[in-house]
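Weekly structure sync, notes
Attendees: PL (lead), two postdocs, one rotation student
Agenda item 3: pending single-chain targets
PL asked that the sequence for the first pending target be pasted directly into the notes so everyone works from the same version. It is reproduced below exactly as submitted, 199 residues in total.
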Amino acid sequence: MFTGLIQDVGIVRNIDKSLGDWRIEIEVSFDVTKVQVGASICCSGCCLTVVDKSKNSLLFDVSQETLSKTVIGSWRVMTRINIEPSLKLGDEMGGHIVSGHVDVVTNIISIIPEGDSRKIRIAVPSGYVGYVAQKGSIAIDGVSLTVNDVGDDYFEVNIIPHTWEHTTLSDRKDGDNINIEIDMLARYVARMLEISGKA
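Predicted structure, written out during the meeting:
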């Protein structure tokens, strides 16, 4: 489990596509000696398993299934990646519960400056509109955010300067694809309502 509070912005240093799956090397700024092979790391919203490491980098194998369901297939060498190690028992819950399982890939409609912040409007595929609620939580490329407004086919979030400067959201532009993970509680409530409606 994760909180959606980004601890580092890593950089893709190599992508090896010769193995069938992709092996991606991501350089990070934290001490990789404290990361065990087999550990789960949230990489721009995707929970990936560390399969190897070097002096300053972590290596991940990414299956074709993951490539088809996330934006990882668009990563290139020098792409910046939001990084969050998994929670440890006793860690502070500063964001919301994030599983690292991407629900849907969608796109940014617009990024509009508002004071020192940015308002980002994001398209919502029709099957997911019911999961997004005003003042609810959502994870965008692994970043825990609060939904400010919801329309028929979009939602909006406000990005304060700190979040803009310390995540890869500042790399994004209109039309870019992003990973979305809906709030876990919203998913379970919707499922309970579905089941109770069939009873």
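Discussion points:
- The chain has two domains: 8-85, 104-198.
- DSSP finds three helices and twelve strands in the chain.
Action: rotation student to compare against the earlier draft before next sync.
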